[in-house]
Amino acid sequence: MDGLFVRERVFGSKTLILFAGFSFFRSRNNTAKIDGDVATVGITDHAQAELGDIVYVELPEVGSAMEATKSFGVVESVKAASDVYSPISGTVIEINEALNDSPGTVNDSPFEGGWLMKVKVSDVPGSLMDAAAYEKSIA
């Protein structure tokens, strides 16, 4: 991992060592890819597959405060509507407005074009899993 080290980062009372492309997961449903003090939040590939074809996404407004483990929006599919929970705490600085016209992008590319919001991070809960723990949890 030597070549992947990016930097140490302090969020609230926690110090994290960040690596290039490193993501954190909350249960089987949400992901936060942290770059500096900004997290790109979305749902996991597993979650989009369980939901089926996504037809509507409800997101918070820019400037909204996010609290880890609290609902911030809704993802609606042809099968069900599901609340979406924030894996981190902070302030929304951007939402993926392209999802208003193309919510199915979440199905096609949940980690790239289908991200939901970007959050300026104020705290990262210790309960988040890294990619290896997440893969084990859904196996």
TrEMBL record:
Q: Which free-text remark accompanies the cofactor?
A: Binds 1 lipoyl cofactor covalently.
Which InterPro entries does the record cross-reference, listed alphabetically?
Answer: Biotin_lipoyl (IPR000089), GCV_H (IPR002930), GCV_H/Fam206 (IPR033753), GCV_H_sub (IPR017453), Single_hybrid_motif (IPR011053)
Task: Using the record's annotations, give every residue carrying the modification N6-lipoyllysine.
Answer: K79
Q: Which PROSITE patterns match?
A: BIOTINYL_LIPOYL (PS50968)
Note the Pfam families from the entry.
GCV_H
Q: Which GO terms describe its cellular component?
A: glycine cleavage complex; mitochondrion
Record keywords: Lipoyl, Mitochondrion, Transit peptide
Cofactor(s) of this protein: (R)-lipoate
Give the UniProt subcellular location, in the record's own words: Mitochondrion
Give the matching CDD domains.
GCS_H
Gene3D superfamilies, alphabetically?
A: 2.40.50.100
On whether Glycosyltransferase is a keyword of this UniProt record, the answer is no
- Carries keyword Chaperone? no
Question: GO annotations under biological process?
Answer: glycine decarboxylation via glycine cleavage system; protein lipoylation
The main location is mitochondrion
Residue intervals of the Lipoyl-binding domain: 38-120
Function per UniProt: The H protein shuttles the methylamine group of glycine from the P protein to the T protein.
Whom does it interact with, and what assembly results? The glycine cleavage system is composed of four proteins: P, T, L and H.
Q: Which HAMAP family does the annotation name?
A: GcvH
Which family is this sequence assigned to? Answer: Belongs to the GcvH family.
Q: Quote the protein name from its UniProt record.
A: Glycine cleavage system H protein
